[in-house]
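call fold(seq) -> tokens
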Amino acid sequence: MPGSNMDPERPEPVIEASVTCKDDECPLRYATWFEALLFANLLSERHEPPLAPCYELSGCEGELGRGVTCGRVGLTGGAASVYECEGYRLPTEAEWEYAARAGTRTAYYGGDITGTDPDARVDPEPSLEAIAWYAVNSAGRTHPVGTKRPSRWLLFDMLGNVAEWTDDRPVFGEAEGPATNPATPIDVRADSARDLRVTRGGTAAGARDMLRAAGQNYPSSDAVHRGIGFRLARTTK
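ret:
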């Protein structure tokens, strides 16, 4: 697994201007990790024909769209991993990075980092300008999706604008488990003191190093943050 940019006790800072993106085309934000799972289940149920939801959530409190938290999360039907789910779900870290890279091996799908000065984190980055909203070009706010150049796989806004939840917990130290299709346990237990989940992609207020395809952050799963949203995935046969 790639290393993190951030201390787990200090989520990536987001400093936004007073004017924020409110168009219908703006990215979803302020969603907890639990709300992303609930939305995925709803989308599965509304699919034609309906798909079996991926997640079982219980002990939930709050209203969808207003910071829902849940006491327990598992996979439907006792599935061994999210890759066995039929319905919509969050991507794993491995899936997210694979999609973000779109076949590239550089820091961004637009090219490599052009500067190495650690004190120049908020300097313009030519490799990002055409593909991402970040600290230098965003005026500190999110923007409608699809207004920057997509990756070669025609995916927009994989980097910048809003960070995106993944299914996975952060892995500290040496990663264990399969090298192919790795995934951490989805379970949230009622006795968990704090459940951290990985976000990827960086934000509209993020410095250039925060937007690397390999970069991570790991806020608490109950975080309601103006710089965090999500996109969904499905396992197809």
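The two ends are 26 Å apart (CA to CA).
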